[in-house]
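2024-03-11 09:14:02 DEBUG pipeline.ingest accepted 1 chain
2024-03-11 09:14:02 DEBUG pipeline.ingest length=231
2024-03-11 09:14:03 DEBUG pipeline.predict start
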Amino acid sequence: MGGVMDKGESPKGSITETKLETKMVEAMQRRASDGSSMKSFNNIILKFPKIDESLRKCKDIFQQFDEDANGAIDLEELKRCFHKLEINFTEEEINDLFGACDINEDMGMKFNEFIVLLCLVYLLKGDPTALHAKSCMGMPNLEATFETLVDAFVFLDKNKDGYVSKSEMIHAINETTSGERSSGRIAMKRFEEMDWDKNGMVNFKEFLFAFTRWVGIDDVEDEDEEGEETA
């Protein structure tokens, strides 16, 4: 079970043109209208250690809601999680989020998938037209980290359409590397790591899954699994 994937492997399915995808893109477009505090891709990279530390602290939250301690949160556990955190999403929204973040379609979210889901909740709860607009996750430090991730995506999304294109990624890297020859290859590698469905456009969910790998969140799962095997 879970979200650790081999390099180059794409998640099954796509949420393109679903209600969730539309809401996610619209929410990101609204957030993009405020601009980004990031000045370069290096700014994002320099924040990796702090983001990594903050996200790893989510492990306690994850284990609290993994009630059967099987290393994954199933749909019913997620619904109880939302209830305890007072996140007021409809059942349809919860089902959509679970389906979008359970990338291996094994009916259980591993730790990195849970982080991505919480960050999407943070983005979506800012939607003034949503039923859950006034909800609060009650985790200020974690929400500050999620805001940094949203800010990073807004920096990359130069045309503010809610997606990051290949040309936008190249532009962002070029701003950082001042036109070094390797910049194009770096940009292409980073973009390919994000564009799992190979459609040439990266949404916020794809960005988040790539980011968890960049900061080593998948390594946390590998370490836990190795510890269980040797116990």
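2024-03-11 09:14:41 DEBUG pipeline.report Residues 20-26+37-215 form one domain.
2024-03-11 09:14:41 DEBUG pipeline.predict end
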